Amino acid sequence: MFIATTLTEQTEADNWCPQQEHSVLLRNRRFQLWEYRVGHGCLLVRSPNDENHPTNVDVICEGVLYMELPRFIPDLRLDSPTDEEILHAKGRIMGHKCKNERVRIFTVSGARFTVVSLTINVREHRDGWLHSPFNSPVTDHSYQ
Predict the structure, then answer these.
(1) What's the pTM value of the predicted model, to 2 decimals?
(2) What are the backbone dihedrals phi and psi of residue 132, each rounded to the nearest 5 degrees, phi first?
(3) Average per-residue pLDDT in the chain?
(4) Measuring CA to CA, which residue among 92, 90, 34 is closest to residue 60?
């Protein structure tokens, strides 16, 4: 069951930018690198529900070309990359083409980590811990 959906899915013409409402969903949560599926480069970073938070919050990236993230992710914030971080990411993707707006920055307790992905979505829900958004019958993966 979806509680709220907050999308940051990127289109070709957009300049991806973290939205203000994400900070409310991400604030005071403890995230973990939860799941990665190789076939379509699907990455799930999840903050599971606990005694202080009745819902799960997922950060879902699809079409992942590169990621550098710690397993445990306290104090997560999504930020825009600097020009230097874009150049760093492009150097790491081993010859794959990448538009600048596909570079995402996950700031974790002040440290900045890079993910290069086609899409990124933030989703709040009450599904169980073992639920995977990648098993969803939705075929466009926009989680609307």
Answers:
(1) 0.80
(2) -115, 130
(3) 82
(4) 34
